[in-house]
Amino acid sequence: MLAVTILGNNSAVPAFDRHPTSQIVSLNNDNFMVDCGEGTQIQLINYKIRRSKISRIFISHLHGDHYFGLIGLINSFSLLGRKQDLHVYGPAPLQQLIELQLKVADNHMSFDIHFHTIRNEGILVDDEQCTVKCFRTNHRIECYGFSFAEKPAPRKLLIDKVQALQVPHSFYASLKAGKDYITPDNTVIPNAVLTADPPAPKSYAFCADTKYDESLLPHIAGFDMIYHETTYLDHLRDLAQFRFHSTTRQAATIAQKAGVKKLLMGHFSSKYDTLDEFETEAREVFPNSHLALEGVCYRVL
Amino acid sequence: MLAVTILGNNSAVPAFDRHPTSQIVSLNNDNFMVDCGEGTQIQLINYKIRRSKISRIFISHLHGDHYFGLIGLINSFSLLGRKQDLHVYGPAPLQQLIELQLKVADNHMSFDIHFHTIRNEGILVDDEQCTVKCFRTNHRIECYGFSFAEKPAPRKLLIDKVQALQVPHSFYASLKAGKDYITPDNTVIPNAVLTADPPAPKSYAFCADTKYDESLLPHIAGFDMIYHETTYLDHLRDLAQFRFHSTTRQAATIAQKAGVKKLLMGHFSSKYDTLDEFETEAREVFPNSHLALEGVCYRVL
User: Fold this and answer.
1) Which residues of A touch B64 (CB under 8 A)?
2) Which of A28, A272, B85, B113 has a 20 to 30 A CA-CA distance from A169?
């Protein structure tokens, strides 16, 4: 199960009760946080997301609306007595900034933080559940997007057939892993007879802050869902270019060219009180475009 | 006119829709901010306080719940195109922390920030309107309280008498400053005949985070209003001592011994859902004790 909950969908300055960027990527029992603008810990309370489930935090870049809430979140984790390790990924000098603030407060931390400084594109996490990679986006300062890909689930046993052919329990794990079964009289039963395909592994990419750049395409090609910023409507295409941001149609074009299934849009400029037009414009290019709304959990299908 | 608006009255961890410490001290046309916990800029929006009026920010100490919102506020000031200078007062290494975060974001700031590192007790501001002083409190790390004292206003002209005695306009300023008037025939008219006392200058002190410590008394003696933290109810007196915080009765005792007129209480522990008992306990010692409630403006009388 892969799902994304939006905690903040606004750019730079808080406005219209919209908050700076933060998302929770839920992968089975784990919660990953992506970016952590100021007030994110309060958004977690508002939306009743269990802080203790957050095992890893990924920070795309060091503009304040993407990380000013991190130190407060870490501080609260400790005050609340967190025990489990926390892994934090982000560009330098994030580690220096956080450690300096912890040091001057002279706090005893209740848990260990492992910093992973991002210096290049590549794999950040690769475990039995998923692979998390980072990729460069085209922003004013060093900035990374993050892709989350589930590992294939084990094949599903067709239990009636497995029992009819008297496959021993000890071989079930091998069946799930795709192996054929050889009966005691040496008949080969192809795996496909005994198992069915598991649900396809899901994929999601967070494309961070970026101007329109097709170099993102290989990193997100064919993904089930992507988030791509749409700071501006398309009439501000020149301003977007100048500020290293994107418009609705640009995000939708990336989604369409990458052949993804669904586009979430966010990082809305505080110029905009209402957001309906973002969907209208994007859908002219890529019909399955949606506003990333705060508090909503988008399941990746 | 001296008044205090509470933006946050909770300690450490946000809870029960209470926010970390921040206050606005309004002095005629100027707004001073005292402490700036995470989310303070959103509280400013919630309570419709004009950010452009904030000329000086005083940070008591570098525990996160007292300053994590500062960088976001400064960042937003710049994004919103602030032009006027900002003065920031606080212990080292506040300046280093803020400047490092501004540097990594590679932002062009729209205004100048003047940092004033606090290293000792003394006068921070002394102008025609007021005197702001800082004084040490007894906390786990270096921590300062701030006192705000209005300058005496000019004496009030008794305009009927002034005109009857044909005092020239050019002498009005001297009358307001307390001088006697000498008529053309050398009669001395005592100032008290021509003017009345102005309203008494008001005073307010923010006593920051502190354990019970009577060394605060000389800094706040006779003040019109003080804020003193009451992290805990009195049954947790030992815990308060251990954590360098105060209880209701301790704050009220300070108020009573200092001979102040009114006590505001805040920095409530997230243990407490309701706060009524804070007033009940404190008023047993010092009757004019009040909860510092978020969004409320307390005029100093």
Assistant:
1) 71-72, 75, 101, 105
2) A28
